[in-house]
Amino acid sequence: MTKRKNKINKIRNFALGLVFAGMIIMYGGIFFKSSPIIMTIFMILGLLCVIASTVVYFLIGMMSTKTVQVVCPNCEKVTKILGRVDMCMFCNEPLTLDKDLEGKEFKASYNRKSTPSSSFTKE
After folding, report:
1. Which of 6, 40, 72, 97 lies 20 to 30 Å from 47 when distance is taken between CA atoms?
2. What is the pLDDT of residue 21?
């Protein structure tokens, strides 16, 4: 079973991975010094990964400013919740603001929107 993490930290880790992937791709271009076209392609691909990382960091930063801040009941630190259920950033305690989900086992599927047909009732 994989360890559950906070959504904001997952996205930040993905962006950090993009930075490292971009650097590795650019270093890979050094092996093709004799072919400037292939080296240039590797450098551009690496640069695109770093730019994508910058965009992801920007978007998660903007999203992070609009999240709900709560005090974790386990570690008593202020953490941010993204969606209906999330994990504490510090102690990985499952958190929710939805009273219907309190006491239930943590499932990431609680954050998915229901199908439109199930949310409307026919009268």
Report:
1. 6
2. 96
How many CB atoms are closer than 10 A to CB 79? 21
- On whether both 76 and 56 belong to a single domain, the answer is no
* Blockwise average pLDDT, block size 10, the chain, 123 residues: 73 94 95 93 96 96 88 87 80 75 58 48 41
Output the pTM of the full model: 0.74
Residues 38 and 12 in one domain: yes
**Identity of the residue numbered 12:** R
- Which residue in 56, 69, 62, 43 sits closest to 16, CA to CA? 56
Task: For residues 86 and 45, give the distance between their C-alpha atoms in angstroms, rounded to a whole number.
Answer: 34
> Smallest Cα–Cα separation from 86: which of 74, 97, 71, 100?
97
pLDDT of residue 120: 37
42 and 25, same domain (yes or no): yes
Distance, in Å, from the CA atom of 36 to the CA atom of 56, rounded to the nearest integer, reads 30
Task: Give the CATH number for residue 89.
Answer: 2.20.70
Asked whether the beta carbons of 111 and 83 are under 8 A apart, the reply is: yes
Token output for 72: 């974790």
Q: Residue for token digits 């240039």?
A: 40
